[in-house]
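Lab notebook, bench 4. We co-purified these components, and the gel suggests they stay together. Before we commit to crystallization screens, I want a quick structural picture of the whole thing.
Request: model the full complex, all chains together.
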Amino acid sequence: MMYSSRPWVLAAAAMAVLVSGATAAERARADVSCQPGTKTLQYDCAIKLTNARTGAPLTKVDLTVGADMPSMPMAHNVRPVKATPTEEPGTYRATIELEMHGDWALQLNLAGELRDRVIKTMRFEGDRAVQSSPKTPSRHKH
Amino acid sequence: MDDYVIGVLSNIGVISFIALSAYLLLLTGEISFGQQAFFAIGAYAAGIATALWGWPLAAGLAWGAATGAAAAILVGVPTLRLHGLYFAIATLAFAEMVRLLFELFSYQVVVDGEFIGPNGADGFRGIRYIFENDIGPLRFLLVIYGLLAATLAAFMLIERSRLGIIFRMIGEDEVLAETNGIAVARHKVLAAGLAGAVAGIGGGLYAHLTTYVEPRIFDVMLGVHSLAYGLIGGLGTAFGPLLGVLIDIGLLESIRMFAGYRMIIFGGLVALLLIVRPRGLLDEIAVHRIRKAWPRILAAGERQTLHLRRPQ
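Here is the predicted assembly.
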């Protein structure tokens, strides 16, 4: 009788994930600016990626851009879209279509040259999109 | 498997923990609008443990579960005398208090030349354990579902044990349970602690999955959803809340063409379902019928197999 060892391999892989210690890895840094697109709730985003340690532009990464509304996690989100590299080294473009205006956490997923995830919180308000500045209270204070 | 599918499956797995957490309290007859607080505490605790203190993921998740359980017991003791609406309001108030505390909580250390850690309303970025250890999305999905299977197995064991019967008995009639010699207070605190631990594990996994948390994520919306999963899926078995999550996230993903309106559609469907089946799809009667029919289905399957194997 043949027994498959696959479940044990998967279980061993899961255990290895749980018990391994942290190791240093290269990080990415991203600067994002978004402009309203041709359609309502559509935004064209320019993303500049650099290596956080060296400052060198990341030219050989596969970048996908998704978005999630922090106030409604997993309920309102944008299906990730693939970003395309531009002529400027380390700069990519992606067009996202939101479900509504408001605060969104852009999820930049990098694969290839460097594997990382960078989160950028931005406020999309009709004709503009601004990056949420640190220490900005999320609620109105009275 | 496509990264998008893995992402959706990961979300379903992670959110199942908070659904199971709310379900455990529903078994004891309590409606909690505050399970998102323990999910948040677990997320921050586990994130701090791995990103700031350099702990392995297992230790981080265990720490998240422990802090979630401790906080739940801390809330469970003073709210023991509260029932129904009063308990619901107390748990909601606690959850909002926790969320506001995280808006003020700042604890950052320099890791690899960068400030990492919770930074009030700006959130907690850089929970990069899966990237630092080169753990792919599929491997992390395996971790999520491995832990979910273990949690579900523990729930099944509890439900078949005396403890599970006591929980349901308290949920049916607390006074009757007390007159039958059940230590109601002790069991309610135990249920709250276990529910807090389950939510804490879910929070820890969520923080590592998204690499980022902020107080707004743990809004009342998450609490309402966690409660709705059990009520939609059914209170007859621990598979009920999982079915609720599957319907919620699966349905939301399948009606993407309705964009921002899909939550309204989903809300309407939930209301309709609760009118038709007040204790959810897999309620006690449905579970009883499935259990009764199961041996017959298995026997029919065996007969079919034997018939197919028999030489013609």
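Chain A touches chain B through 46 residues (CB under 8 Å). Worth comparing against the SEC data before the next meeting. Strands of chain A lie at 28-36, 42-51, 61-68, 77-82, 84-85, 91-97, 102-112, 116-125, 128-131.
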